[in-house]
Every structure is written in structure tokens, then in C-alpha cells.
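Please discuss these two lines.
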Amino acid sequence: MNLGSKPSLKTLTKRAIRKRKEQQIPLSANAKAKIIRMSPLKVRRVLRQIQGCSYEEALILLRFLPYRACHPVAKVLKSAAANALSKYSVPRSYLQIEKAFVDKGPTMKRIRPRAKGRMYPIRKRTSHISIVVKSTFSRYENDVKGNFLPVSIG
């Protein structure tokens, strides 16, 4: 092997592309829904199902899962996709769910009357749903001639 030889143009462009990919910030958008009248435990089992899926896969899953929590989760997912489209002009087909989590919201406390004048507390739990979507392509990737090419990141 000749140590003094220069790298070819092909390896230089591959290196330049790899370097540009490493420098780019991944495009991500998020959406939140606050004070959803549903227990976080029930929402969490739906979010675990769609974690890591693509946007379209997640919508199909949410449509056919038999849980009541699917409707508000789908609304938040669609909102996150709309945010990505308006913020970065990323098409919905290139979106993937990076994070989907639920936090506990304020609990409404009610009272249920019981025997002998006693009362029994009822806790009506609420939740805050958050979904973060990221794009799976680098929108600044160009070929040698300068034409735009959607290149998958991962």
C-alpha cells in the first residue's frame, strides 16, 4: 500500500456526506395535550404500543386498538406531524415517533356518600400526553450534481 497516495474523489465525497450527516441536528417536533380526562396508566399502555413506529404505522395501530385512549393519542400524534410539516417542511411519510410519554395531571377529588354518614373519596385522574416525532431523512443531503436526494438516517 502506498502511504503517500491521495484519496479518490469518491471517498472524499463519502467522507464529506458522512461529516455533514454527523453535524446536522435531527429535525424533531413535539406536541402536548394537557388535562385529558383519563388515567395515565390507561394512556401509557397505548403509548407503549406506538413507541418507535413510523407515523403511518402508528395511525393504523391507533385505529384498530380497542382502547378509549387511542382517540386523544391520535390527535396529539397528528398535531406533532403538523408541527413538523409547518416547522421543517418534513413530509409525514418520513416521520418516526421518537418519544411518547404521559405525565400525571391534576386530580379532581369527589366524594361518595357511604353508610353511617361516612364518605368515600373518588379520584378522577387526568393526564398530560406528549409525543416527539423526528424525521428519518436529512433534508440538506445533495448528490454530486447538487440535486436533492432524501437519504435515510436510521
Notes: The helical segments are 9-23, 40-50, 55-64, 70-88. The chain has four helices and seven strands. The domain at 28-152 is CATH 3.90.470.10 (Ribosomal Protein L22; Chain A).
